[in-house]
Design goal:
Layout lengths: L3 E7 L5 E7 L14 E4 L8 E4 L2 E3 L6 E3 L15 E3 L11 E7 L2 E6 H4 L4 E6 L2 E8 L4 E6 L1 E2 L2 E2 L2 E8 L2 E6 L5 E3 L4 E4 L13 E4 H7 L4 E3 L39 E7 L2 E6 H7 L1 E6 L2 E6 L7 E4 L1 E2 L2 E2 L2 E4 L2 E4 L5 E2 L5 E3 L9 E2 L2 E4 H7 L4 E2 L3
Parallel strand pairs: 9-20, 22-34
Antiparallel strand pairs: 1-2, 3-4, 4-5, 6-15, 7-20, 8-9, 8-19, 10-11, 11-12, 13-14, 15-16, 16-17, 17-18, 21-22, 21-33, 23-24, 24-25, 25-32, 26-27, 28-29, 29-30, 30-31
């Protein structure tokens, strides 16, 4: 039976249109063919770099698939406009946003806007950032958009790897895996972007945490139906549109997990489990971490090693408390009372996304609670 999937394609001023893609009959052809030769085993990410017909890459080229829209067919937002909270009536309290705070500069990026653009090139707290979202995988990530010290912009390539957004940089035209934060094809193959901690959280909770925040507006310079999500019930349906590796039935493929990669060890936590437990103390390899969730759909992660002590945390009477000193900590990871008052935990970047996406990239992953 032919598997025919309708994939949304934004077409500028005419609003929403759709492109029918037949995966079973017309597989995407490899970008190039020929014998692979190893260029280097010592990229900055300790990844083997191959070269095929003059193209450097770290993934098989035939794993790169067309997603429907052409290069920049899903346009990045390069000159974002923002509104203050008092002027944010276009955002509902229940709308999910990517929340970002750097050096006192707080901004929110609604997913109902990002679903149409996937990348926002911005400056927050003086730091050039790429705020990214792949609706196919529910992968949210914020990168510092500097490569070898050079500030660059990112755009959508129109290609996918493991159903995940492949960005391209507008400096070298290299392809970057959003899920990995690594250049997978092109001159910069093997290079890695720095991630910046952020929140996936409802607008109501974010603005309460950051009342001076700005929020991205729909004045993007593009005509889109921002009141409509073109992916419909895709987020709960078991169906996966594009080919992926390493399917795993330990949970629903669209279960939202929070992933971590530490020194070659991969571990995933169900977002629902973090919300249910409020606090999870755990270890990933040699790193001791604390996961905390005090708001719906939101998780934060901190290293729990402080002053050569590994702390254990609990949520007691609506307070984050460490067992060792009974100090109280706020949601920013700062002790606000007790012997540790004024001390700060190191916040960690998280990798949220659907389970099928995490296991596709990390087949040897551990899963907390399973």
């Amino acid at each position: 039976m032919n598997l025919k999937i309708i994939v949304p394609l934004a077409l500028g001023i005419i609003g929403i249109a759709f492109l029918a893609v037949t995966l079973s009959d017309s597989p995407t052809q490899p970008i190039s063919s020929g014998e692979d030769k190893i260029v280097s085993n010592l990229s900055q990410n300790n990844t083997t770099i191959f070269e095929t017909n003059g193209v450097k890459h770290i993934i098989p080229l035939d794993k790169i698939k067309g997603g429907g829209p052409p290069k920049d067919g899903i346009p990045s937002i390069d000159n974002p406009n923002f509104a203050k909270v008092k002027d944010s009536q276009f955002v509902s309290d229940s709308d999910v946003v990517i929340g970002l705070e750097i050096d006192g500069d707080s901004r929110a990026y609604p997913l109902f806007i990002l679903v149409w653009h996937e990348i926002v090139n911005d400056q927050v707290g003086g730091v050039p950032v790429a705020v990214t979202y792949c609706p196919l995988c529910y992968t949210n990530q914020v990168f510092e958009r500097k490569i070898n010290g050079k500030e660059v912009e990112f755009g959508t390539s129109g290609k996918l790897y493991n159903s995940n957004l492949l960005m391209y940089d507008r400096w070298t035209d290299s392809y970057w895996s959003q899920a990995l934060g690594i250049a997978v094809k092109g001159e910069l193959a093997g290079a890695k972007l720095k991630t910046i901690p952020f929140d996936v959280i409802t607008w109501g909770d974010w603005k309460n945490l950051h009342p001076e925040t700005l929020v991205l507006t729909t004045e993007t310079g593009h005509l889109r139906s921002y009141a409509t999500d073109p992916y419909g019930d895709y987020y709960t349906d078991k169906k996966i549109i594009f080919p992926v590796d390493n399917l795993d039935d330990r949970m629903h493929p669209k279960e939202i997990v929070i992933g971590f990669s530490e020194e070659g060890i991969h571990k995933a936590y169900k977002q629902n489990d973090i919300e249910k437990n409020k606090i999870i103390n755990d270890n990933i390899g040699e790193k001791s971490i604390m996961l905390v969730s005090l708001f719906s759909q939101n998780s934060r992660a901190f290293e729990r090693n402080l002053n050569d002590k590994i702390l254990e945390f609990d949520f007691v009477e609506n307070k984050i408390i460490d067992f060792q000193t009974n100090s109280e900590w706020n949601y920013e990871g700062v002790a606000i009372s007790g012997p540790f008052k004024g001390e700060s935990l190191t916040r960690m970047s998280i990798e949220p996304g659907f389970w099928f996406e995490w296991i596709a990239f990390h087949p040897q992953t551990e899963v907390w609670g399973i």
